[in-house]
Write a structure and sequence with these properties.
5-stranded mixed beta barrel
């Protein structure tokens, strides 16, 4: 479970290293987000030669969280960090070409249209 102001590791090769959530989609009163949701993020730390720069705003897909995810088969999965991958402005394609680390199964099930 993540809220506005949460800092996340960027797990792709877009050039960003750290991002902060500032917008959560899903209604006016929505206060938290989970694995598989698309959020608005601000890039806080980035490499100088990357595709995105520090201070840029982007969309991101949450791929893993420290907060445990309860699965339908009864198992519970959590990660060692909170991570996100950056999406383009339409939210349909990835900014980077590689993803580092594992991606939670729930993130892929909810967003099958992302290439």
């Amino acid at each position: 479970m993540l809220i506005k102001g949460s800092r996340l590791v960027v797990a792709d090769n877009s050039g960003a290293k750290e991002a902060e959530i500032f917008g959560i989609f899903g209604g006016t009163g929505k206060r938290d987000c989970y694995v598989g949701e698309i959020v608005r993020v601000a890039i806080k730390k980035a490499e100088p030669e990357g595709k995105v720069k520090s201070g840029d705003k982007s969309l991101g897909l949450i791929i893993r969280t420290k907060y445990p995810v309860q699965r339908k088969d009864g198992t519970c999965a959590s990660a060692g960090d909170n991570a996100i991958i950056l999406l383009d402005s339409s939210g349909k394609e990835l900014v980077g070409s590689r993803i580092f680390g594992f991606v939670a199964k729930e993130a892929l099930e909810l967003n099958k249209e992302i290439k």
